[in-house]
Amino acid sequence: MAYRLAIASTDGIVVNQHFGHAEQFHIVDIDPDTNDFTFVETRESERVCQGHYHHDSSFDKAAEVLSDVHAVLVAKIGQGASQQLESRGLTVYEAPFPIEPLIAKILKDRLWEVDEWRSLTKN
User: Which of 85, 86, 105, 87 is nearest to 95 (CA)?
Assistant: First the structure.
């Protein structure tokens, strides 16, 4: 079974976006059987943060873009946004690091088991 990650990154190399500022997410499937990962696609998303406030409709649209994802990797996220995502079954990691070593750590530590990722991929 593959586990799907959404990575907030402008370049696909480093997790470098605040969740509320992200306009795209790189989607990656990790395969615990082969200890490998595959880039799936880049998805466009509406910015959730509009200055110092959030639009509920923007958050709902971002959540829809991430509806088949198990976990989100972001450089930074506010407590309210994190709680919103977690209430929708996603695990949130603040991890402003290079993507490939981060995925390697997720695989090595089998974080989907430790953190009990709740949602299922729909692929």
Answer: 105
Q: Report pLDDT digits (tens) over 62-92.
A: 889 999 999 999 999 989 889 889 988 899 9
SS3 74: strand
User: Tokens standing for 28?
Assistant: 């990656």
- H/E stretch holding 112 reads helix 111-114
70 in Cβ contact with 90 (< 8 Å): yes
pLDDT reported for residue 118: 56
Q: How far apart are the first and last CA of the chain?
A: 10
The residue type at 39 = F
Two structure tokens written together for 119? 């949602």
Distance CA 105, CA 118 (A): 19
Region label for 17, one of left (φ > 0), alpha (ψ between -120 and 50) or beta (otherwise): beta
Where do the domains of the chain lie, and which CATH numbers do they carry? 3-114 (3.30.420.130)
**Quick one: tokens of 110?**
């089998």
The model's pTM is 0.89
